[in-house]
């Protein structure tokens, strides 16, 4: 597995492992995800969008301070201007994050499983830690587009080390918003950063350091995968997903692993470990 995995990530910037989870594990995660909305706030609902510049996450401590908590972010099309739901609560959420891996036992069990540790070992990690986790809903009709991006924009390290673990809990198709990649794009460096604003007088707590790059849409290739697969994503691989305009949801669980041995995780990143809860380590090679 080692050579194939590393070779594909080095060549393409991503790799797919089929049948990473069993059918029972997929069902358990899916049921846990489908129940998350029951604990979502009934007022002061936060909208998350990667497309609309008016989205509040760059100004909102609810987002910035979510690294060691479970917090709830709604779809733009699910909440009206007064914060009232326009759709059923069960399909209103965009995502829940960013500490499901430590705060929810069902997601923790998968994140810290021997299979995940084995993949990290085969990828050459020395002291890998889990930086964040998310449950992404991509519900039918309201599931929003995720713009073209690199994970390193948000989770920057020197040298580049972050690997995204993306696990669909339902079949991800071209109709319901599967991932699209630009093969080999990870070889072109980090195109921009999303950082804590050094201007402490600004209402923008987080800012981009450069304008958004323009990526030709013809360069992207869709990567449809079956439920229970694992998509490994190099931090510099450019990827996106379309809005879900189908009648089928595309739930997924995703988390990011960083190297903590001889690797500097940027203090400018939006997500920072707390003194009380540092990023949990998966293993340490002797």
What does it look like?
The longest helix has 12 residues, at 23-34. The strands form four sheets. Strands 1-13-8-15-5-4-3-2 form an eight-stranded mixed sheet. A four-stranded antiparallel sheet has the order 6-14-9-12, with no helix packed on it. 16% of the residues lie in helices and 24% in strands. Strand 2 (46-47), helix 3 (61-64) and strand 3 (70-74) form a beta-alpha-beta unit. The mean pLDDT is 92. The protein is built from six helices and 16 strands. It has helices at residues 2-12, 23-34, 61-64, 100-103, 105-111, 114-122; strands at 14-17, 46-47, 70-74, 93-98, 128-136, 146-149, 157-158, 163-168, 179-181, 194-196, 206-208, 221-223, 230-234, 239-241, 252-259, 264-265. By secondary structure, it is of the alpha+beta class. It is globular and about 50 Å long.
SSE inventory with pairings:
Layout: H1 2-12, E1 14-17, H2 23-34, E2 46-47, H3 61-64, E3 70-74, E4 93-98, H4 100-103, H5 105-111, H6 114-122, E5 128-136, E6 146-149, E7 157-158, E8 163-168, E9 179-181, E10 194-196, E11 206-208, E12 221-223, E13 230-234, E14 239-241, E15 252-259, E16 264-265
Parallel strand pairs: 2-3
Antiparallel strand pairs: 1-13, 3-4, 4-5, 5-15, 6-14, 7-16, 8-13, 8-15, 9-12, 9-14, 10-11
